[in-house]
Amino acid sequence: MLQERRLNSSGEQYVVGPTGTPLTLRDLPPANTDRWVIRRKAEVVAAVRGGLLSLDDALARYRLTAEEFIAWQKAIDKWGMQGLRTTRIQHYRG
């Protein structure tokens, strides 16, 4: 579900992030992120869902597979942010 485009006071497009705060392209995890904590995964999903970043751009920027990203989306949809915990995803996949 795409959100309506929003601009902050600096004219930057933003979406509401997973913690309820505005999220701009500058706020996204660095492209060289190796440690994917819950918040970072949720931010990337929120950015794609909100139209801040295209799926293709997210996959290329973060060197993700479509399957990884889709798993993150499904985990959020089914269990919320806590579903993104690595141990939880392994447990829930059964």
Automatic annotation (TrEMBL):
For this protein, the record's SUPFAM superfamilies field holds: TrpR-like
The record ties this protein, via Gene3D superfamilies, to:
Winged helix-like DNA-binding domain superfamily/Winged helix DNA-binding domain
Q: What is this protein called?
A: CtrA inhibitor SciP
> Pfam family of this protein, just one?
DUF1153
Q: Which organism is it from?
A: Brevundimonas kwangchunensis
